[in-house]
Every structure is written in C-alpha cells, then in structure tokens.
Amino acid sequence: MKRIKVAAGVLNQTPLDWDGNRDRIVEAIVQARERGASILCLPELCVTGYGCEDMFHSPGVVETALETLGEILPHTKGIVVSLGVPAYRSGGIFNFACLAADGALLGMVGKRNLAGDGIHYEPRWFKPWPEGIATTLPFQGQDVPIGDLIFDVGGIRIGFEVCEDAWVGQRPGARLAARGVDVILNPSASHFAFDKYHIRRRFVLEGSRAFQTAYVYANLVGNESGRAIFDGDAMIASAGRLVANGLRFSYRDAGIVDAIVDIDENRLGRSRSSSFRPALGPEAGVVVRADFKYPTKVEPSQEHAAAPWEASVDRKEVEFTRAVSLALFDYARKSRSKGFVVSLSGGADSAACATLSSLSIAYALDELGEAETRRKLAYWKDLQAAKPGERAADDSHTEIGPRLGAWGPIVLQTVYQATRNSSDVTRNAAKATAEAIGADHLEFDVDAAVENYRSTVEKAIDRKLTWEQDDVTLQNIQARVRAPGVWMLANLRSALLLATSNRSEAAVGYTTMDGDCAGGLSPIAGIDKAFLRRWLRWLEVNGPPDYAPIGALRLINVQQPTAELRPLERNQTDEGDLMPYDLLDRIERLAIRDKLMPVEAYQRLLEEYPQYTADDLLLWTERFFRRWRQNQWKRERYAPSFHVDDENLDPKTWCRFPILSGGYERELRELREWKRANVSSGR
Q: Who wins on pLDDT, 1 or 388?
C-alpha cells in the first residue's frame, strides 16, 4: 500500500497584506510539516488575498504577488504545497493555482470556470483558462509551465479543481481521473451562506467517489475584505469517504486538517470500475514531472471532527451567531477599531447587534486564550491593561458579561437615547440587555434637541408641525437627532459604530437615513426581521453556543417591534406601519429573489396566506412594490453589510436595481384589474 498524509490549510488572509499573508502561509506550511504531511492544499489566491477587487488589474499587484510567491518557495522544502496567485499571459490576467515542492515552483494551473454570479465578479478581472492549452511563464529566470497541467510528483499524480471548477456540471475532475490523477486539490475562496457547508461536502465526497481519488478541499476563514464571510471549511475525502473535516469559524490565523490516504486503494478502485475510461491516446495538456521522496512511515493523523452543532436542529441559528461574531471580530481588528458602539433602543435589531459584538470577543477568548487574543488586538491599548473574566466550571452556565469581565465595557459601548415618545419598557429592556452582555451602558435624553429643531423649523415656515400633517417629518427628526451623540461616542473611543437596520427594513425603506442607519458597518442588513426575532428568542431560551441563555432578552422578545417615534398613545408598531414581517419577507423573496411580477406574487400569497383577506394582501403587495422602488437610493447608501445567504439586497455585491425607474405603475394597475376580475373582497 502507498499511504501518504495530505493536509488542507485554512488561512485568515487580508487583500494586499503582503507580509501578513506570506507569514500566515509559512505558518500553515510549518504546521503541516510538523504533522508529517507530504502534500498541503492552501486556499485560492492566498498570496494576494481573494478580495482584491479591481486592484487585480494593477500590474504592480501582479508583480508583487509573484515576488511574494518567490519569498514563500524556500519554505516548501520537504513538502508539496499549492499556492494561489494572479499572473499575466498574452495580455490577460489569470487566476493560477501553483504547485511548489522542495523549494521550487513546478507549474501553475489556470482556473477554468470563473465565478460570476452572486457576490462574485471574477470575469471582471480574470480570463478562463482554456482546456488543453499549456505554455510557459517567465519566473525567477526560468520558464515555468502554466495552463492545463497535471503533476507527477514522486510517482503520485496531482491535479486541480479550483473552487468554481467543482461547482459546474462538467467538472475537470473527470478528465483528471482519466489521466490517472491520484490526488485532486481544490483551493477555494467560497463565501459562507446558510447550509452551504453541506453542498460543499457533497461535491467533495462525490468527487472522491466518482473520480476514485483523494480529494483535498481548503477554504479561507474569517472576514477577509469586508462583506464576505468565509467559514474555514476544510475537508479531505478518499474513495467516497470523508476522512477529515475541520472546525468551522475558527479565530486562528492558520489551521491545518490532515489525513492519511491510500493511493493504491484508489487506483485499485479505478481499475475495478467498469465505467472508468482511461485516456490512452496522446495526453492533452502537459504532465510536469518532479522527483520527491515521500516518508516510508506515516504517523497517525490527529482526530478531526465537525462540531456537534453541525448536526443540530438549531444549525442556522448557530451558523448565524458564529459567522457574524467572527466577521465583527475581523472587521474591527483589520480596521483597527477599538470595539463597538451601538445605539441600544430596547428593540430587537440593536439588541442583536450588541449581543453579537460582545460574543465576537468572548469567542476569541474561548478559542485563542487571553494571551493570543491580546496579541491579535495589540493595537488596542485599553484592552491590554484590563483583565477578562473566566469561564464557568460548567460551560453551559457561562454568561457573556462575566466571561468578558473588565473587557466588556471596553469592548462595547451602548446608549439608550430617549425622547418624550420613549417608554419605560424599552428603557428597561436596553439596560438589562447591556448588563447581561457586559456593555458600558449610558442614557441620553435627546428630547430637548428634537424640540429645538422642531421650533427652529416652525419659526422659519411660520406654522406648527402636527402629527396629522407632518407625521414622517416628526418621526425622522427623532431618529436623526440620535445620530450625532452616538457618533461622538464612537469618535471618543475610536470604535466602530454599528448601524442596526435589518434586511426587511432595507427592502421597504423603513429606516431613517442619517438616523438609525448611521454607522460604519451594518452587520444585520443581510438578514430578515422574522429570523432575527426567532434568533433572539432562541438566545433567550437556549443561549448562544457554549453560553448560558440570555434571560434579559425576554424584555425585548415580549414586545411588538416598534420604532417608538410617534406619541405613545398612538400605539405605533412596525407591522402596523408595514405589514406582518413574515409576509413582508415572503413578498421580498417572491419579488426580488424569484423576480415575479406583482400579480404573480399576489396569486401566490392568496394560496399561501388564507388567514388574510384578499384586500389586505392586495394592500400589502402594492405597498411592498412601491416602497421597494422608491427606496433603492437608501439601499445604495447603507453601510457595508455581511453576506449570510443568497437573498442579499446589497446593491454593491448581489442585488442590482435602478435608483430611478418606472415604479411598477403598469404592473400594479394590472394587479388591481386581475384582482377585480378574479377575487372578491371577502374571498
């Protein structure tokens, strides 16, 4: 039997951070070598970072990437390593997976299938490498093979499927298997989305089964460049069996998952398969051969198991908690922000942002320990001098506030900003939530500032402003008056101000520009309100992973969501202003994700929501489409948000819509005509 140890490396990289990216790559190589791995797969474009955007067009960036690659090569002595860089050839820029061994660059394989949908814009920067074409590229005084290559390294054949290559129908892996490839490496930069892990797992397993190879999949981890979150998925499969699976959402700079694979077992499987058709004619592409000595004795691999919550019925809640907490941690440290500031209203959205902020540091302490967390946040002097709390003896009893200890008030500043329309219910909910998660909590009374603006305008226009005539104006000034004070707190701390608007509000513009959406980052703008409310109830009852339930959230969860911008006697609620949130989210999916016209969406709602009258469904459908069209300019102005599913409304990465449009006038007219002809008012 020919058994070798292979490894998948997980890296937390940053675009254009040349020295940092290089050092983390070297750290991963050192870890893999210490574990006795012979072949190491690192993520896609790991030298430059995946999210360089239009800087990939810079000749200087491409040149520096190759220079940095040269700096890494000496560290590959005694090991085979895949590395990712962009490079020019014949006037085009290509995304290359490079294979190095024993300090030398053996060759570079061009990515065949470019990701050009969703948040990905690879065709904007790169050209797809054509099948069967191989040539050379000058590198450090020699011509290096590039293109459609396979590698014969010490008698073991290695090939590449680069990220998107494995997601398409005609996978390169079938052709690689026909050419006798033993190990397929998949260097990836695959962004996080709910349940996407299971899709990746299927194609890794199916690739290893159908191609009868060892399959090594490596992904990025963390918030690499601002919006996309990477979960650090790492998998190794052989002959259709998953033999190693890494822990997702790690806070470490570099991590390794390793496993022993039996090359002869896979070769025997191919020979026994009646469907296997080896390529016997002249080989398309080029086989690059290199000497390499694999260890004769292979040490056992470490145990790698997925976290228990991967199979949990609450997996979406846990994924959301882990993903956004890690993204906040990376966003803060990479922007050198000293913690977070949240205008805590006593409602669901701001409570979600505040809780995730505290968890972002608590999880770092849990995984990295105090010393390593301090090192990663070395720029943050106030944190260095303080002492975090300890975990409870029973992890299930650990509370967030006590875990953070003296770090809590440094990490998170919250502030409740009251007007005459604020209630004791929300005031008490904000205070209790802040105490539970360890925040430094303040209260401002901004009513005098509201009244000052109101009286100033009334004098200028020579009339009184009334709720009957000026409802939206009087609501908005309260939200806007709250922004300057909370911005001051963020400036005083050099902290990151979090905007608290969610995706449901973004869809219909139910937010005040320069008010509640003020901030440098909008962490929950990619998630709908119905899920956020469910998630907060889960935190109250179950608690976040490895922490005690947050009982204080009950004060928020028992409320009907409200902006509290009208006088209290008017009993304002969000759903009264808009529509039931579950229905709003359903219309959004039908209209924006599924691209249905208003009448088509309405027809679906009639089938799915018999509890509502046809007239109400008509009103809400029209309201959604009109407000969606009117408020694209607001979505364009949102602070950066995190991508957590494939229903994002971010116009900069996912969902493009014109700022000016016809406004569905004809479509809404056709909707009313269809309703009159087909549906009675009472159903």
A: 388
CA-based nearest residue to 504, from 404, 605, 587: 587
Nearest to 160 by CA among 146, 144, 145, 176: 176
* Neighbour tally for 470: CB within 10 Å: 17
DSSP lists the bridge partners of residue 222 as 230
User: How far is 524 from 519, CA to CA, in rounded Å?
Assistant: 12
Report whether 220 contacts 232 (CB < 8 A): yes
Cβ(403)–Cβ(363) below 8 Å? no
Helix (H/G/I), strand (E/B), else coil: 303 = coil
How far, in Å, CA of 67 to CA of 172, rounded? 29
pTM greater than 0.85: yes
C-alpha atoms less than 13 angstroms from C-alpha of 235 in its C-beta half-sphere: 23
Strands 496-497 and 340-343, by their bridges, are parallel
Per-residue buried b or exposed e for 325-337, using 16+ beta carbons within 10 Å of the residue's own CB: bbbbbbbbbbeeb
Q: How far apart are CA 361 and CA 339, in angstroms?
A: 9
Q: Which of 312-316, 357-361, 384-388 has the lowest mean pLDDT?
A: 312-316
Closest CA to 495 of 487, 503, 483: 487
Residue with tokens 């770092």: 364
**pLDDT score of 42 more than 70:** yes
Considering the chain, what percentage of its residues have pLDDT values greater than 70? 98
DSSP codes, 270-302: HHH-TT-----SSPSSEEEEE--PPPSS-PPPP
Q: Are 260 and 301 a contacting pair, CB within 8 Å?
A: yes
**Location of structure tokens 């005040």:** 512
305 pLDDT band, cuts 50/70/90, is low
Contact criterion met (CB below 8 Å) for 335 and 344: no
Beta bridge partner(s), residue 41: 8, 82
pLDDT for res 516: 86
DSSP string, 648-670: ---TTTT----SS--TTHHHHHH
**Strand partners for 262:** 3
Query: Which helix H or strand E contains 218, and what residues bound it?
Result: strand 214-218
Tens-digit pLDDT profile for residues 139-196:
999 999 999 999 999 999 999 999 999 999 889 999 998 899 999 999 999 999 998 9
Nearest alpha-carbon partner for 114 in 163, 157, 70, 68: 163
